[in-house]
Amino acid sequence: MSELKMDLIDNENKKQKPDADKIAFGKHYSDHMFIMDYSTDKGWYDPRIVPYEPITLDPAAMIFHYGQTVFEGLKAYRTTTDKILLFRPEQNFKRLNLSSDRLSIPAIDEELALTYLKKLIEVEKDWVPQAEGNSLYIRPFIIATEPNLSLAPSETYQFMIILSPVGSYYKEGIHPVRIHVEDEYTRAVRGGTGKAKTAGNYAAAYKAQERATKEGYSQVLWLDGVEKKYIEEVGSMNVFFKINGEIVTPELNGSILEGITRMSIIELLKDWGIPITERKISLEELYEAYDQDKLEEAFGTGTAAVISPVGELNWGDRNMVINNREIGEMSKKLYDTLTGIQTGKVEDLYNWTVEV
Ligand code: COI
């Protein structure tokens, strides 16, 4: 692979950064981005850091027609001693390659990708927010660029990384969100692309999301696409429930995203000796536990969502108010520990953070 090239803009042409208290998720972008090209004859080539600007693509580029694309999401955090930390970035590049494999996109070199990302963050270090709860969201993605309308994997691609300073994903912040159970539309089915981070999974969720938003819910909870019986995920996060002292989360089944925050929460709970089980959880079981006063907490986990307590779960005319719409003890402890490790306030016993 060729040498990393850099085309950096002058200080006076740099953008103004958003105010710390007005950062909306995904609305602001830093001054530079990373790009690397692929062609079947050259492999991945020409890695470069260039000014952030619109890119030009042929209208016949395959990404526009058949959605051959994958993405990732991770964050850079500024510690109180001004270090910049990434959280388990190697896991993101590993998952990017797994998603790529599902979409017939050529793999990238994971170690090199991390080297390029660190270089980009170094260039853009002033964009990593200082304020508590804010961070620099990192969006690596790959798109099929070959102009060709026939149905076959593209012969050319672009791998890009863009950076966006963000605050909390939900307007509720760490306050419990309201979630609507979706039982008409399906997000993903066994053998489909559910566990891959690919655009189509997210676009296919909008219809249900729109309806839920209209009714005042933050997100929808997806059920399995075959029996419409078992809980899968929320779309922007994986879900956990505390039932009668035990924490449970849906087992990975090919249609649920294999969340890195999910994996970290399971590892933390195991390390703390708290019972955690990955298994099928039916909606009926959840309502039964609720009726018997055994549903103690519910929360979602994700890079963007961090740990988001669920205060209300609605399924048609069956409504659950969980933990009095307050953040539960376990959700709070997990939130404090995870964000503490990510921002260097809590000792990283697990070697999860990587300094830039
Ligand atoms: C993330 O948590 O990074 C995600 O990919 C969720 C995103 C679709 C908002």
From TrEMBL:
Q: In which pathway does it act?
A: Amino-acid biosynthesis; L-valine biosynthesis; L-valine from pyruvate: step 4/4; Amino-acid biosynthesis; L-isoleucine biosynthesis; L-isoleucine from 2-oxobutanoate: step 4/4; Amino-acid biosynthesis; L-leucine biosynthesis; L-leucine from 3-methyl-2-oxobutanoate: step 4/4
One of the entry's Gene Ontology molecular-function terms is: branched-chain-amino-acid transaminase activity
Instruction: Return the EC number.
Output: 2.6.1.42
Record InterPro entries: Aminotrans_IV, Aminotrans_IV_CS, Aminotransferase-like, B_amino_transII, BCAT-like_C, BCAT-like_N, BCAT_family
Extract the Gene3D superfamilies matched here. Answer: 3.30.470.10, D-amino Acid Aminotransferase, subunit A, domain 2
Cofactor(s) needed by this chain = pyridoxal 5'-phosphate
**Which CDD domains does the UniProt record give?**
BCAT_beta_family
Q: If you read the UniProt record, what top EC class would you report for this enzyme, in one word? A: transferase
Listed under catalytic activity are: L-leucine + 2-oxoglutarate = 4-methyl-2-oxopentanoate + L-glutamate; L-isoleucine + 2-oxoglutarate = (S)-3-methyl-2-oxopentanoate + L-glutamate; L-valine + 2-oxoglutarate = 3-methyl-2-oxobutanoate + L-glutamate
Q: What are the record keywords, sorted?
A: Amino-acid biosynthesis, Aminotransferase, Branched-chain amino acid biosynthesis, Pyridoxal phosphate, Transferase
Transferase as UniProt keyword: yes
Which Pfam families does its entry note?
A: Aminotran_4 (PF01063)
Q: Which PANTHER family match?
A: BRANCHED-CHAIN-AMINO-ACID AMINOTRANSFERASE, SUBGROUP IIII AMINOTRANSFERASE
Concerning its family, UniProt says: Belongs to the class-IV pyridoxal-phosphate-dependent aminotransferase family.
**Descriptive protein name:** Branched-chain-amino-acid aminotransferase
Highest lineage ranks of the organism? Bacteria, Bacillati, Bacillota, Bacilli, Bacillales
